[in-house]
Specification:
Blueprint (H helix, E strand, L loop, with lengths): L2 H52 L2 H6 L4 H18 L3 H6 L5 H22 L1 H7 L17 H25 L8 H34 L6 E9 L9 E11 L2 E8 L16 H7 L16 H16 L5 E5 L1 H11 L2 E2 L5 E2 L4 H12 L3 H20 L5 H13 L4 E4 L2 H5 L17 E10 L9 E11 L2 E10 L10 H4 L11 E8 L5 E9 L7 E5 L2 E10 L4 E9 L5 E6 L20
Parallel strand pairs: 1-4, 8-16
Antiparallel strand pairs: 1-2, 2-3, 4-7, 5-6, 8-11, 9-10, 10-15, 11-14, 12-15, 13-14
Helix pairs in contact: 1-3, 3-5, 5-7, 5-8, 6-7, 7-8, 11-12, 11-14
């Protein structure tokens, strides 16, 4: 046998061995892919079943006793999905290029959902069987604080656990995922975040409500109503005001007032920072109408408290702000209210009646104030009588808070700290490692009630690496003959603005640490230039625009800032019920 023949045979045997090895690897790969595919599809079915069951969660608010059965059903599906995506084969698949991040995302989501359903909600489920939503219904003006105290420990435990689940889903790098999976992960992450926010809100309410309801001693609160027909940063000018007294869960209305009861103070009633004065002057601390001009309720509320103290001698323990849109949400829960004038105020007509029709009906501001006072008093009486469904009222208050229409400030620092990070504080949004935050705050410069006709919209997008763009569009939707409206609505030309036109100063707060790249405006009117300043380390662009009926204008601000998974914009709440959704703008200068 020649050496060539022996060598050929060895190569042949090696080839056969290689073929078997490759074949075996191929079989294993196919089997592994099939295993993952089958288990992945089964996991999907379980997660979809859990999602369908979770859609019934709002029903639990009306009947907490149904919570254990619902959570058990969801837990059964999420546990199955977690098990299907947590075996050795699946974990090996997570190490592969491209497909690995897809599998890891599914596994992470399954584990987070299972942890929520099987563990995080357990403390709340355990108390749900003994809790009735009717136990917090006001009875003759009294709210029992015992249920809040009883639920507080369970709510705190569940909120902490849910916070960890939110962090897990938030850390998923969705940029590596295929579009359908990315959308699904975003949806689940949103669901997890909503669950956390709901439980966290319950936890904070259980901590705060007993004290605010006077369980530890009498309290007094100033409730102010913002008028969205004349914009200020946090909503609108302050019109009607109520002083509420709480003691042992009992709530009573002890005094009422309106903006006409307050003087124009010669000097600021509290000290404003140099930055605040550069941006807003001293008006926020000299006129009750302007206390919400600074876009931070922890700054405006103490000003309102000081003004109420000077005029009434009562030093209140906190300040609460609402607007007519929030009032309409509450009225949809309680049902219509008949006013002393004979008018029927409902969730459907509250905004139109309080922000527009009243000015057609009454030319005298004192008559307008009397109407507002009677409406506020009637609604308060209805709320404290126990009218309406408590679950519907809680939903209305939650919606008002999420839309920045309900604001709360407590003088006691430990109580105010409970609200840290919530929209109820009315604070300027923070930028962090996961979220880039803009603030857009509109202020009327016409001394009119024409903002009833205006819309304010925002959109954001990443226009390149570390390059974010914010678009702000404002439009005057007043009728073409708006100049013929009552002078109290148009302003009567008192600020040099022709009746029917609207002049607005918009304060655009850029993200902390960002660097402006370009600021430009376009639309139906020309913008000669921009003002600006700094507020607590944030660059602020001031855009003043004057629009005739039918005109609109858009500002585009591009900033250099580290790329984050999310961009949010906090805006002045207007009469529009829906919060403006962020839709990606066309990058560049507006036309």
């Amino acid at each position: 046998m020649t050496s060539e023949t022996s060598s050929a045979r060895r190569r042949h045997r090696a080839g056969r061995i290689s073929a078997w090895v490759l074949g075996g690897l191929l079989v294993i790969s196919v089997a592994g892919a099939a295993w993952i595919g089958i288990r992945g599809y089964a996991a999907y079915q379980h997660l979809d079943s859990a999602r369908s069951a979770a859609e019934r969660a709002p029903e639990v608010l009306k009947n907490p006793a149904a919570a254990p059965a619902l959570v058990e059903q969801i837990s059964s599906d999420t546990s199955a999905a977690h098990a299907l995506t947590d075996d050795v084969v699946w974990k090996l698949g997570e190490m592969l290029p491209w497909v690995g991040p897809q599998l890891e995302a599914v596994s992470t989501v399954s584990a987070a959902l299972d942890d929520i359903a099987s563990n995080s909600l357990d403390p709340l489920v355990s108390v749900a069987t003994t809790f009735s939503i009717d136990s917090i219904r006001p009875q003759d003006g009294v709210i029992d604080t015992a249920p809040f105290v009883a639920i507080a420990p369970a709510a705190a435990s569940s909120a902490e656990s849910l916070g960890a689940a939110v962090a897990k889903t938030r850390d998923i790098d969705t940029e590596l995922l295929i579009a359908p999976l990315r959308d699904a992960v975003d949806e689940v992450s949103g669901l997890v975040a909503q669950t956390y926010f709901a439980v966290d809100a319950l936890h904070r309410a259980c901590e705060l409500m007993p004290a605010m309801l006077g369980s530890d001693g009498p309290r007094d609160y100033l409730l102010v109503f913002q008028n969205n027909a004349e914009w200020r940063s946090l909503g609108g000018i302050v019109g009607a005001a109520l002083q509420l007294h709480t003691e042992g869960g009992h709530i009573s209305l002890v005094a009422q007032g309106s903006s006409s009861d307050f003087p124009r103070y010669d000097e600021a009633v509290v000290t404003l920072s140099a930055d605040e004065q550069q941006l807003f002057g001293t008006q926020p601390a000299r006129f009750i109408q302007n206390v919400t001009q600074i876009p931070d309720f922890s700054r405006g509320a103490p000003i309102a408290r000081e003004m109420w103290l000077r005029e009434t001698g009562v030093d209140v323990d906190g300040v609460i702000a609402l607007d007519p849109v929030a009032l309409s949400y509450l009225l949809k829960a309680t049902g219509p209210v008949t006013l002393p004038t004979g008018d029927v105020l409902s969730g459907d007509n509250a905004v139109d009646l309080l922000l527009n029709e009243v000015y057609h009906r009454y030319a005298d501001p004192r008559a307008q104030d009397a109407f507002f006072a009677s409406a506020a008093g009637a609604v308060f009486s209805t709320l404290t009588s126990g009218a309406g469904s408590p679950s519907d009222l809680l939903t209305a208050m939650a919606r008002s808070g999420s839309e920045n229409r309900l604001l709360i400030w407590n003088r006691e620092e430990s109580e105010q700290k409970i609200l840290d990070g919530t929209t109820l504080q009315g604070a300027i949004p923070e930028t962090d490692a996961t979220t880039t935050s803009f603030g857009v705050y509109a202020n009327d410069s016409t001394a009119s009630k024409m903002d009833y006709f205006q819309t304010l919209a925002t959109s954001t997008s990443w226009c390149g690496p570390d390059l974010a763009q914010l678009d702000v569009t404002i439009r005057n939707n007043a009728p073409a003959d708006a100049g013929g409206l009552p002078a109290y609505i148009t302003g009567g030309g008192g600020q040099g603005v022709s009746p029917g036109e609207i002049k607005t100063a918009i304060y655009v707060y850029l993200p902390q640490g960002s660097t402006p790249v370009s600021i430009a405006a376009g639309g139906d009117v020309e913008t000669p230039g921009f003002g600006g300043g700094i507020d607590r380390g944030r660059d602020v662009v001031v855009w003043t625009v004057q629009l005739a009926p039918g005109q609109s204008a858009t500002l585009a601000a591009q900033v250099s800032t580290p790329t984050t998974p999310h961009i949010v914009t906090r805006t002045t709440p207007t009469i529009d019920e829906e919060v403006t959704s962020d839709v990606a703008p066309e990058c560049g200068i507006p036309k």
